[in-house]
Structures are given as C-alpha cells and as structure tokens.
UniProtKB/TrEMBL annotation:
InterPro entries: Epimerase_deHydtase, Lipid_A_modif_metabolic_enz, NAD(P)-bd_dom_sf. This is Short chain dehydrogenase. Pfam families: Epimerase (PF01370). The lineage of its organism: Bacteria, Pseudomonadati, Pseudomonadota, Betaproteobacteria, Burkholderiales. Residues 3-220 form the NAD-dependent epimerase/dehydratase domain.
Amino acid sequence: MRIAVSGANGFVGRALCVALHEAHQDVIALVRRSGNHDPRWIELLIHDDNFASLAAGQPELGRCDVFVHLAARVHVMRDRVADPLSVYRAANVDGALNAARAALHAGARRFVFVSSVKALGEGEPGRPWREDDQPVPVDPYGISKREAEIALSEYGRANGMEIVIVRPPLVYGPGVRANFLSLTKAIQKGIPLPLGAVVARRSMVYVGNLADAIGLLATNAGALDGVFHVTDGNDLSVAEMIQAIADALGRRARIVPVPIAWLRAAGKLLGQSARIERLTGPLRMETIRLREELGWVPPWTVSEGLAEMVRGLEKHRVDIP
C-alpha cells in the first residue's frame, strides 16, 4: 500500500514511518521542514499553511491508498496567543479538513486522524472512557480535536471516504519531551517527588504500541470507520509510574506521600491548579474496538516501553549523570 503520513518528522510520525516501512508499505512522509531525510521513504516538503496548498495540489501528492494525519498544533500549557481556540481551530480543524481533501484527490479510501484523549475531557466519567461515550472537551486544544473529529466524519460520509479516528492518551518513548521528560529528568537526579499519596490511575501508550495500532488501522483490508482508543492496557497511578521509570533507570524512586489536599492548596497558591488536578485525578481509556474487533494486542508492555525510552535517553545523553 502507498500511505501518506503528515507530521512525519514528529515524535509519533517517525515511529510510524519506521513501523510502516518494516511492514513493507510504501511511505510518503509529509514534512514542513526537511531534516535528515530517510532514504527508506519518499519525503514531500509541504507549505506551512494548514495544508491549504496541498489540498489545492501544491505540491502534488500523487496516488495514495491511505492518509494518516498526525500534524497538529499540540497542547500548550501556557498559551499566550490572544484567541487560542481560533488558532487551534485553524491548525487542527481546517488543517485536518484540507488534508482530507488532498487525500480524497489522491484517491485515498481511508483517512486516519490521530486525535487525543483531550477530545474526551480532562477527567473521566467515574470509569474509563469508552469509544461510544459522549465527549465533553474543556480546553481549546481538546475542543479543536473534537471539532475535527466531527467535521472529518461528516466529510467522509459526504464523499465516500472511511474516516478512522484514533484517540491516544499520554504517549511516551524514545524522544519524548514536555512533562514526561521533565519527570524522567527529576527521577534521574534523585529529586524527591511529593506524589506518593496519588492513587488515581491514568492511561498511557508507548509510542511503539501507538505506531503499531495506527499501522493496523491504516492497512486493515476490511472496511473501518469511527473511533478507536489505544493504550498499553495497564493503567498506572502516578506513584507507580514514577517507580516504573526509576526501575527502568536503575535508580531509587524518592516518592514522598504528601496529602492531596496539600498539593491542591500549593497548586492554587502557585497558580498551578490545573496541573495538580491532572496529576491527582484519574484519566483512563478502554481499548475495546481494537482488541475485540481487530484482535490487537500491544507488542510492548509498560516496563518494556519505559526501558526503550531510557535507552533512547542514554543513547542521546539526555541529562544522564
């Protein structure tokens, strides 16, 4: 199959291109900036205009069977733009629709849109989220992802193209950045972490597992449509996650059991209430459709995924003392 991947230079995009190539698929890697070009697949440099030029045929995408859309404006903790929602909508809704138009013009029968757990909401409805639950997104990023899901589904129905929506939770692995990398660095340095009393569990997915699931959804021969959740299938509490990272690093976890009420009070005092709520509240997802309809099993366990992440840090000497 000939599969186009937007955001191919990103954290998930690189892993997906490798997985598709190893599965003997032809890959068109769509990138906004050409980096170290990988000769294993075609690299197509596109304009930084939310895929409007690509939808108009500039550059020409050529024939493709499936389009996987990873490119997005990602979640920003402290967004300083005047109207964040309009900026997210331009990138994540308009950009996704333009990519779908380019895919349809190229003859793609299926469009795989990688959304986010944020499209569901910040918390959970008293149990893990299921694919058929009604989303209640809160922040501009999550709202834009949910609006893109709806708009793409309508576009697919109107144009006879399968729209597959993938919702991952927190993604980790070699090359991870942002909060997960900061947490790993703190554990590397032996910094005491006041999270021992946090028992709420949160879903995660190793980047290799996510790439494997996306690859299956992209290449499955049967008709596919709708929403698919993907996780490692082993939801850890924050304290358990810290311990698992420490085990992978070969370090002793220094976890202090500070009462959650104290954490929330400190968060309010420091203007970090939203971050503390994310740390202390549960956010789980069930991988029902992938498991039951397609028989998918994550190739890596959590411990194996964390070990791969640590090896990646050591290889690139990211804060290893």
